Amino acid sequence: MVFDVTGVAGVAFHHVILPCFLYSPGLRWLLFTSESMRDEPRSMDLYLIRHAQSVNNALPEAERVEDPPLTDLGRRQAACLAEQIPTLDLTRMVVSPFLRTLETAEYLCRAAQLAPQVQASLHEVGGCVQGPDPSVMVGRPGMTRSAIEERFPGYVVEDRIDAQGWWRSQPYETPDQAQMRAKELLADTQRRFAHSEERVAYVMHADIEMLFLACLTATEIEVPFNTSITHVVVTPAATRIDDYNDVRHLTAGLQTR
User: Fold this and answer.
1) Could you tell me which of 52, 14, 58, 56 has the C-alpha nearest to residue 226?
2) Could you tell me the pTM of the whole model?
């Protein structure tokens, strides 16, 4: 289920459209056993995972809070995703410092037997702010290092997160700033992992995930479901989206945005 970001014609999200010849078992066998495929350079598998449903996802925007926990439904979603996580054979899990992503990762890290790495650059667009509208939003500290380590023992918190909180009460992040951060996150991912065979999960948020993917394709991207998995393949030569918004681990009644 692969499409190249340099040629996105014929792509439909949720169900990626494949060229018709790939449906032929004989030709598919020939393709995957050719010398060119055996000599393909190393690739890194990146899995973008949106957090499970948070309290804010279930509330009108005017009633949302700065750092909500998961809902009961969100915890059920996370538990369902955890059952699938071992099939990804992850080598690393990186998590946004928002509470909803940290709580989602609790389910996943046990299944993957990995210690989540808390990285502020995965945070949701806007940052940790309080208020009903960007024009009046006030920056909040975000969880501190000690709060994360006490609530989530075993998580590896990056050095820049300290007693001032991961957001440090900065102002609302503008759309331009968020877009630049997404580009920097992609460049950092390519720099760190393109020459590796790592299998890395980013447990993150809908808007920053969509900005990240917008760096790879001009195709319009719809809002991903809670706990959806998007697979991105990173090599020294190219970065491509392999699958988008996979929620096969959720029944229809558990699918939310």
Assistant:
1) 52
2) 0.84
Match 């449903």 to its residue by tokens: 53
Q: Are 187 and 181 in contact (CB under 8 A)?
A: no
In a domain, 114, yes or no: yes
**pLDDT tens track for 235-248:** 999 999 999 999 99
Number of domains in the chain: 1
- Residue 5: which of 245, 247, 232 has the closest Cα? 232
What CATH number corresponds to the domain at position 48? 3.40.50.1240
Residue 247 lies in a domain: yes
- For tokens 């609302």, name the residue: 172
Residue 126 lies in a domain: yes
CB 49 within 8 A of CB 100: no
Query: Is 8 contained in some domain?
Result: no
**Of residues 145 and 1, which shows the higher confidence score?**
145
Q: Which DSSP category does 255 fall into?
A: -
Token pair recorded at residue 242 = 């392999």
Instruction: Give the number of other CB atoms < 10 A from CB of residue 87.
Output: 9
**Domain range enclosing 49:** 42-254
